[in-house]
Amino acid sequence: MKDKTTAALLAFFLGGLGVHRFYLGQTGVVFLCLLFCWTFIPAFIAFIDFIIFLTVSKESFDYKYNRAYFQQPIVKNYVPTPPPPSKGMSSEIEYVL
């Protein structure tokens, strides 16, 4: 299970190489970070990620990055059966056209 503090520290110290994204399982972004690491753009984006990881709630982080670790409740499809027709006055009225 991934931890948001670990992701934030990786973003701060090794974010220019995309290590924090590799930790979070986003390998395509890591390739782009390695391709453009000489421009320092990935380092700037990693610093923004560092701030976001520190400010986001644990529930939001878990929902985005740890969804596979939490089982979603299985809801069975339940189709209720209609109630039996009543034998009241309305069932005895006939409509004549």
Task: Please explain how this structure is put together.
The chain has a domain at 4-69. The protein is 49% helix and 0% strand. It has helices spanning 4-14, 19-23, 27-35, 41-55, 58-65. Helix 1 (4-14) runs antiparallel to helix 4 (41-55). It is elongated and about 80 Å long.
Hey, roughly how much beta strand do the residues contain?
Answer: under 5%
Order of helices and strands: HHHHH
Content-based structural category: mainly alpha
Q: Give the terminus-to-terminus CA distance.
A: 70 Å
Radius of gyration: 27 Å
Largest sheet: none
Mean pLDDT across all amino acids: 85
Helix content estimate = 40-55%
Number of strands: 0
The helix count comes to: 5
Which runs of at least 5 residues are low in confidence (pLDDT < 50)?
A: none
Q: What overall geometry do the principal axes of the alpha carbons give? A: elongated
Keywords: Membrane, Transmembrane, Transmembrane helix
Pfam family, one: TM2
Transmembrane segments: 28-56
Subcellular location: Membrane
